[in-house]
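Q: Sequence in, structure out?
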Amino acid sequence: MAEVATARRSRITPEREAELYAAVLDLLREVGYDALTMDAVAARTRSSKATLYRQWGGKPELVAKAIRHNKPGNIADIDTGSLRGDLHALTSREDDCTMQQNAALMRGLFMAVHGNPDLLQAFKELLIEPEMEEFHRVVQRAVDRGEVQAGRPALDYIVHMFVGAFATRTLIDDQPPTQEFLLKYIDAVVLPALGIPVD
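A: Exactly. Output:
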């Protein structure tokens, strides 16, 4: 899918691409994934539907790319010299308002993924797998520095811990995820599971 998308890519400017992605996210927040149509995206962005299909192939790929574009930079670019510092820096990239908006958006998309195999595939290839690869590079640096033992069982579950904390904050506590909550979670749960003491 990624190779096909690259071959399809035309001379759209980065500014226009960002504008299109922003419109897609706005529509997702307004109507949800199932009700989102390429016609609506075309109308909102004053684009032709043919251009959208030529550029992205379809709704699943367009939505996954819009979510990916909305992420604040490459995870692997964060390098503070310690895993705790890296995880805290990663958490601090979004303020509480943005985090709350994104959490609501992702809850809706998680529901949509279960009934849309094409969306699941697009999410895996264009969003989940690239972010997992970036995150694993951050963790591998901690292993290489000797902060974390290579065979530590919790290494395989760090992403699961993060997603769980982010996704279940509203379900369990009826509150949105916040920086304060996630920073405390990192120190109380993630780092101890990796054998990293927190003062």
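DSSP finds ten helices and no strands in the chain.
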